[in-house]
Amino acid sequence: MFKIFLILGSINGFLAVGLGAFGAHGLKGKLPADLLEVYQTGVQYHMYHAIALVFTALLADRFSSSSLVHTSGWAFLIGIILFSGSLYALSLSGIRVLGAITPIGGVAFLVGWILLAVAAMKSL
Predict the structure, then answer these.
(1) Which of 10, 13, 20, 72 is the right S-S partner for 112, CB 3.0 to 4.6 Å?
(2) How far apart are CA 95 and CA 108, in angstroms?
(3) Which of the residues in the chain have pLDDT under 50?
(4) Against a cut of 0.90, is the pTM above it?
């Protein structure tokens, strides 16, 4: 799982930087300020959780038998897709109902962090 999460974290870090640059340079002046802020929130959480995936890769390498660590990595990835993805789609399309998906991604992020905490407590 080390390799998978390291690759996923690296790809998502790359995407977060690229999408952030696109938002800052390509969307400035083209989106209303409120939608640009929504887009930037997606980028911010995308990067945080790309880093979390790299961190999870390191933990998966150290605790290779921990299904909690592995599941946390998948939760982070699902969170990126649902949380950041829905914010990107909402801001670019203006379809506000897409915001209903965002909290599901947020819950996935929370699950990922809780699973890491439980894995840490079990390893003590």
Answers:
(1) 72
(2) 22
(3) none
(4) yes
